[in-house]
Amino acid sequence: MQITQQPILEVLVAEKTRYVIPVFQRVYSWTSRQCEELWDDIMRAGKAGEEHFMGMVLFMHDPEAHGGFTQVDVIDGQQRMTTMMLLLSAVCPGEFALAPLVLSEMDRATLEALVAGDGLPEEPAERLVDNYLLFAKKAEEPGFDAGSFRKGLGHLVVASVMLGAEDSPQLVFESLNSKGMALTTADRVRNLVVASTLGDGQQRPYEQRWLPLEEQAAQADAPTTVTDILHAWLVERYRSVRIFDPGDIYGLFKMRLRDEFDGSLDRALASVAEFSERYLSDAEYRAEVDESAAEWAAGKPEKSVSEYKLFGD
Questions:
Q1: Strands 2-7 and 17-20, sheet pairing
Q2: Residue pair 196/203 in contact by the 8 Å Cβ criterion
């Protein structure tokens, strides 16, 4: 297994490379919510001049030759890669020589048509078309900052993981997706923390912050998970920010990480650790916060002000 950190644009424009979605993966499923957040991440990264980490993408080389192309199976990362291709095709048509991305049979012809600028198939995949049009519309809005957009594109990075011949792609995919269960807030934050260790000279919050937090949760008197701690910490600090479903919680964490902690996971997790000491030692306080967090995480917070809608991954 080889891991490198690289701009996602380098992945998408790889020469003589064809990316293929294995049959065990689902069809394209991103909604406008995730697309809106991606757009905001790009604009924010462009204006701030800072990298934005998009997560891990897992690949596996197909050893057989395919018409002069190197075929790479996309084990995890279909949604992000597909959405980026839609975005680039809608906002910068013809500017990037995008590598072929072969989706499932239901989506394949529609993506190919949108990327090539050709006529759509008779029964197009509506979600692909809707998201393409969403990006095209945003680029036409008054005040669209094309300069920040282009800078932001260059700041999008991923952790590119190439599996070895000894790795089973389907087993890896199933383990990443928790056997069909949705990733928890802790799962997503842990992935973000692990990815932060890939860059040279970066702090190592996984060993110094994350592992002690997991140990605290495991040793607590009452059954407690890191997700419980994160939700309690978030609701205590940002109770007035309304969320609409559990998928928004990770979006809130990322937004506050950027805006309040200047992107420093070390500082953010230090704050979580300080909070967890009282949370885990004071049973009465924990029960009170847990009740509020349960309502808040369900999108039904009491005495909250709807400031803005957050978007999850």
A1: unpaired
A2: yes
pLDDT score recorded for residue 222: 75
Angle between helix 105-116 and 78-91 (nearest 10): 30
Domain boundaries defined on the chain:
2-180, 185-297
Classify 294 as helix, strand or coil.
Answer: helix
Residue with tokens 């949108």: 114
DSSP 168-228: -HHHHHHHHTGGGPPPPHHHHHHHHHHHTTSSTT---HIIIIIHHHHHHHHH-SS---HHH
The helix/strand/coil state of 96 is coil
DSSP state of 158: E
Predicted TM-score (pTM) of this structure: 0.61
Question: What tens digit of pLDDT does each residue of 201-252 get?
Answer: 445 677 788 888 888 887 777 778 888 899 889 888 887 776 666 667 888 8
273: left (phi over 0), alpha (psi -120 to 50) or beta: alpha
pLDDT at 201: 42
d(CA 26, CA 110) in angstroms, rounded, equals: 16
Strands 52-61 and 156-163: parallel
Max mean pLDDT range (62-71, 192-201, 206-215, 297-306): 206-215
Q: What is the mean pLDDT of residues 92-121?
A: 93
What SS3 class is residue 86? Answer: helix
- The pLDDT tens digits for 146-159 are 999 999 999 999 98
E-assigned strand segments in the chain: 2-7, 17-20, 52-61, 70-76, 101-102, 156-163
The answer for 117, left when phi > 0, alpha when psi is -120 to 50, beta otherwise, is: left
